[in-house]
Amino acid sequence: MKNSFLGLCLLFTATTAQAQMTSGLTGKVDTTFSNASAYRQAVKKYPTIELVQEAKLPTVKEKRNIPYCKLGSRVLALDAFYPKKNSIAKLPAILIIHGGGWRSGNRQQHIPLAQRLAGLGYATFTVEYRLSTEALYPAAVHDLKAAVRFIKAHAKKFNLDTTKVTALGFSAGGELAAFMGVTNQNPAFEGESCQGKTGSQVQAVIDLDGTLSFVHPESGEGNDSKNISAATYWFGYPKKENLALWQEASPLTHVGKHTPPFLFINSSVDRMHAGRDDFRKVLYQHSIYSEVHSFPDSPHTFPLFNPWFEPTVQFIDDFLKKVFAEE
Known about the structure:
Elements: H1 2-16, H2 35-42, E1 50-51, E2 60-71, E3 74-83, E4 91-97, H3 111-118, E5 123-127, H4 139-153, H5 155-158, E6 160-170, H6 172-182, E7 204-208, H7 230-235, H8 243-248, H9 251-254, E8 262-266, H10 276-285, E9 290-294, E10 305-306, H11 309-323
Parallel strand pairs: 4-5, 4-6, 6-7, 7-8, 8-9
Antiparallel strand pairs: 1-10, 2-3, 3-5
């Protein structure tokens, strides 16, 4: 059914789509979304929250600004956090993808989470990817798959178990993490840059309040009546002008038998996890494990703050121990 719908969308789009909008490609960094701006917004309703800060842990080694992909003169980088203590057992890896509406935000926002998870025995990587001020969909997907290939290619350096790689993302990053998981077996989304023989498959996905569909009735994306929406900037088309593209970029479109286990951790803002329940129904049909944890009366930016940060870390650790348990 979903493939038939996508085919109809493609036919419709072929005759109706307008020229792709490039006005959003400003080439300038958008600093609209940051931890500080998120705090200023959230503290109005939640005055007791605390922004989680970076804190170097004595048990964690850090390497920052590691180039993972070069696109002409543009160099994409990531940061690595992993246990100092040498271990015979290889480490599960977690790629952490920031949010910001595919347009703003930066990888430093989730360094506290990366540090905390590294302290629990994971190798974590906060990753930069091209945003919609620089490149349109699917450039970000190509970048993130290249990042997975990079960390797998350097598995020996970080003592990684390349069969235990997780994509973890918040908000727009959650959507991207989900998309990486559902396109594990789809070469159409690998991109042509920074290719290598190493695969980009991930074995688990953690989606922190990221949408599962841009076209689901629950979705809040695509309303351009007051301002151009984040997704419209990313795609370069309003939803009504290129529905097929919006459908293609939705993780719900691709979920199937090759999808890995999923953990959903959600705020009380329902539209931020549009399509989640329908997505889980497909996982269930294929006997693929998933979990949902929701924080009542919480802001969309909950992963940045306590009292939600610590239980989020616990949910992540418990989930990964379960899905990566030794047989």
